[in-house]
């Protein structure tokens, strides 16, 4: 916060004296929009500032300090050109430069070197974009670590993603739904190295084109893929340590010609880490008791991720592609805990427990896609067919023994849990973009998806030294869900106004079948999801936007399983097959100043909200946790994106999110209302130093907030990073330290009815990471091919 304020003060202290205007055109005199216009010092050609020319080809630089400059204009597919040197001083405060004419480049264009630094957080087309590959702090981490630094994102005690105060964000990978939730989704995010991520898009108000799932919006993780011609790639190596060490290694390859693009990558890692949990429970009754659980879990995560694909260019307008991706990972945990139990303030017994977990989970998915441009007006058609299978094999033993002070003889129990979970996904979708003219177009499409999960949960109890199947505790649960969807979007541009109207319809059919209980919970429902957006450009510097959307969040597959999962002797989790989907209405008003400063105000209301709830039996001392529907919740959000550039070598990105959450947790047995205001502040300071050195300071602060029945205490973290580039910027070395103060943790409490508990979870967040990346191969870009590749990068699954 101090650095942000200091940076702001520096801006106001500078003496601003000049304004520069210039226009870019083609050689025939036609305006050339979106040209890179770079203001440089004459002395060393260093970059002062860069801008994009407007639709009319004009460009303006304000508040330019005294000095001698020249301007360079570049655009892919055109030869670059520059102005003569000019001076900004007291006598030349308003400089109108001659028009810069750019001619089309020939096929023999050799290379384009991109040197501009992307900010870690920026706003594009209504979405918040995290440029992960430009961040020093992301090195050595995972997708889950990066999301913790994303604006408006919070991670709860079970690694679930909360976006702008709401759980239920849809996670996509390269534009594809993961269809995973809960622990399976957390494992996927932990297995994806940050070095393999290019950007993360956060879309809080998606259009009707996207699946309606995800009440708080969509988080799309885009992995790295190059569009450079020839054979090229990169190798990355990383290692680090906290309490336990870890490493990761990966290779990314690309072979691109005029007719095809073949690409693939492989990543391997072994990550050691830990989790500690402190859980204090006050239990009332005839004899009040106090349970104080202290748990330490040593964990290791081994990942093997791969992706291979091919795009074949039938013509310059038509492309077909295939993609295969997957992973074969494992998660191990050795947990040890003890729970002192006091009665009337005096210790009377202690529960000792140990868990042994060996979890292997794998995934393989295939995608076939086609995209074609049918005419010069921009009519496009695309098609995708997907098939994926996830398999999760778990082996877990839970041993516990009770030690009584008055009778020091341990009473030992043990259970063996061997759940096998399989998820099979099939989907087909097609999209059509139909322009009527340059200002009006319609988008339409359909999607059919089918998901089947088979959860076979087996419990064995230790009797007389042997494990015997516990029939009453084991079960098999099969869940199937089919969704038939269609949408239409109408887009219209009137001068400086963009209007978009959309409607999506989804027919859902589901069947939750407990094989053990021989019972079905079937549902069939049709929903309509309208969306609307309005963007008004007031001037070159001012823009406002208004949007609305309705979303749905269906219950997690595993949470529908009606059987009990044992955490320990006194804590259970139970599934709920009767949960209903949540429905969220969200409206957002945004204001953008100079295409970089953004303020957004939003309101959302969620009906049938799903929250974790708990019931405590004061006689058996058992607390049972489960998810269930409640009446509704309201979230008011204000977000600010404030980039600051005190000097050309110092870039500051600030993001502030304020939430007001109100929960109406009410039904025939519960009447609980909670509300709070929460603040999330994130800042990243990047210092570009001579000789290709770079230094970064980052931090975040999260104020107290409420999540359902939990009241969460504040947390914060500070990180440092340094980067050095070698071999003409083909080699990059990064060193960073995360969570220096060791304050990134989860602290929360729940007090209602007979529940009175406090939770404190800690993870291995403080660590040192060293990463190495080497880019090799052909780095030439052919202009003719690259102009077409811009749309290809937008292809789903590419």
Automatic annotation (TrEMBL):
The protein's matches in Pfam families, at most eight in alphabetical order, are given as: OMP_b-brl_3
The record ties this protein, via InterPro entries, to: Beta-barrel_TonB_sf, Carb-bd-like_fold, OMP_b-brl_3, Plug_dom_sf
Can the keyword Cell inner membrane be found in this entry's annotation? no
A single GO molecular-function term is: carbohydrate binding
Q: What is its main location?
A: membrane
Can you quote a single GO CC term? cell outer membrane
Q: Where does this protein reside within or beyond the cell?
A: Cell outer membrane
Arranged from A to Z, the UniProt key words for this protein are:
Cell outer membrane, Membrane, Receptor
Domain Outer membrane protein beta-barrel per the UniProt entry, residue ranges: 373-774
Identification of the protein by name: Outer membrane receptor protein involved in Fe transport
- Species of the source: Chitinophaga ginsengisoli
């Amino acid at each position: 916060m101090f650095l942000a304020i200091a940076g702001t003060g520096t801006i106001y202290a500078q003496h601003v004296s000049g304004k520069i205007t210039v226009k870019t055109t083609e050689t025939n005199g036609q305006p050339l929009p979106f040209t890179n216009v770079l203001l440089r010092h004459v002395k060393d050609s260093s970059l002062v500032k860069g801008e994009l020319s407007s639709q009319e080809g004009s460009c303006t630089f304000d508040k330019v300090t005294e000095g001698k400059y020249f301007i360079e204009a570049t655009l892919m597919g055109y030869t670059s050109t520059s102005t003569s040197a000019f001076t900004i001083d007291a006598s030349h405060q308003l400089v109108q430069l001659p028009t810069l004419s750019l001619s089309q480049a020939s096929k023999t264009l050799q290379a384009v070197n991109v040197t501009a630094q992307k900010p870690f957080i920026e706003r594009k087309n209504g979405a918040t974009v995290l440029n992960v590959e430009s961040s020093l702090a992301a090195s050595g981490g995972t997708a889950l670590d990066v999301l913790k630094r994303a604006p408006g994102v919070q991670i709860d005690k079970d690694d679930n993603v909360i976006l702008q105060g709401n759980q239920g964000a849809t996670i996509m990978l390269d534009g594809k739904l993961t269809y995973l939730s809960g622990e399976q989704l957390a494992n996927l995010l932990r297995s994806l190295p940050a070095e393999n991520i290019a950007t993360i898009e956060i879309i809080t108000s998606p259009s009707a084109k996207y699946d309606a799932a995800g009440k708080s919006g969509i988080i799309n993780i885009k992995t790295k893929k190059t569009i450079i011609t020839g054979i090229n790639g990169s190798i990355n190596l990383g290692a680090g340590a906290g309490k336990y060490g870890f490493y990761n290694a990966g290779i990314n390859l690309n072979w691109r010609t005029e007719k095809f693009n073949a690409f693939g990558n492989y990543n391997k890692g072994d990550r050691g880490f830990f989790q500690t949990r402190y859980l204090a429970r006050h239990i009332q009754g005839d004899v009040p008791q106090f349970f104080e659980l202290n748990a330490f879990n040593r964990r290791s995560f081994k990942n093997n991720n791969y992706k291979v694909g091919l795009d074949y260019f039938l013509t310059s307008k038509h492309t077909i592609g295939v993609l295969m991706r997957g992973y074969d990972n494992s998660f191990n945990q050795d947990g040890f805990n003890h729970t002192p139990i006091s009665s009337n303030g005096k210790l009377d017994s202690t529960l000792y427990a140990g868990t042994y977990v060996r979890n292997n989970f794998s995934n393989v998915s295939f995608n076939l896609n086609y995209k074609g441009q049918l005419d010069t007006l921009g009519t496009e058609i695309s098609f995708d067919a997907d098939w994926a299978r996830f398999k999760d094999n778990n082996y877990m033993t839970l041993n516990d023994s009770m030690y009584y002070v008055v009778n020091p003889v341990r009473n030992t129990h043990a259970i063996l849990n061997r759940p096998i979970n399989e998820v099979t996904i099939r989907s087909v979708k097609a999209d059509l973009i139909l322009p009527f003219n340059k200002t009006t177009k319609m988008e339409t499409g359909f999607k059919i998806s089918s998901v089947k999960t088979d959860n076979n949960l087996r419990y064995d109890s230790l009797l007389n030294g042997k494990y015997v199947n516990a029939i009453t505790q084991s079960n098999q649960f099969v869940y199937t869900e089919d969704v038939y969807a269609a949408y239409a979007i109408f887009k219209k541009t009137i001068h400086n106004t963009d209007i978009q109207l959309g409607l999506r319809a989804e027919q859902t059919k589901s069947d939750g079948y407990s094989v053990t209980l021989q019972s079905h919970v079937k549902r069939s429902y049709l929903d309509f999801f309208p969306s609307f957006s309005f963007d008004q450009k007031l001037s070159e510097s001012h823009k406002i936007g208004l949007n609305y959307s309705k979303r749905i969040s269906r219950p997690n597959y595993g949470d529908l399983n009606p059987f009990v999962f044992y955490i320990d002797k006194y804590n259970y989790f139970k599934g709920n097959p009767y949960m209903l989907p949540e429905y969220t209405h969200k409206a957002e008003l945004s204001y953008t100043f100079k295409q970089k400063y953004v303020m957004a105000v939003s309101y959302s209301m969620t009906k049938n909200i799903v929250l974790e709830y708990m019931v405590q039996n004061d006689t058996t001392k058992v607390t049972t946790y489960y998810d269930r529907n409640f009446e509704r919740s309201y979230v008011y959000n204000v977000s600010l994106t404030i980039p600051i550039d005190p000097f050309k070598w110092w870039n500051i990105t600030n993001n502030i999110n304020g939430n007001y959450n109100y929960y109406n947790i009410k039904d025939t047995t519960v009447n609980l209302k909670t509300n709070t205001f929460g603040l999330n502040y994130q800042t990243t300071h990047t210092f570009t130093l001579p000789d290709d050195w770079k230094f970064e300071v980052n931090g975040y602060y999260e104020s107290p907030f409420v999540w359902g029945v939990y009241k969460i205490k504040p947390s914060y973290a500070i990180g440092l990073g340094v980067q050095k580039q070698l071999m003409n910027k083909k080699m990059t070395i990064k060193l960073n330290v995360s969570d220096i103060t060791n304050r990134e943790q989860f602290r929360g409490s729940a007090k209602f009815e007979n529940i009175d508990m406090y939770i404190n979870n800690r993870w291995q967040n403080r660590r040192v990471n060293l990463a190495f990346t080497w880019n090799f191969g052909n780095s030439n870009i052919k202009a003719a091919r690259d102009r077409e590749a811009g749309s290809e990068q937008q292809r789903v699954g590419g």
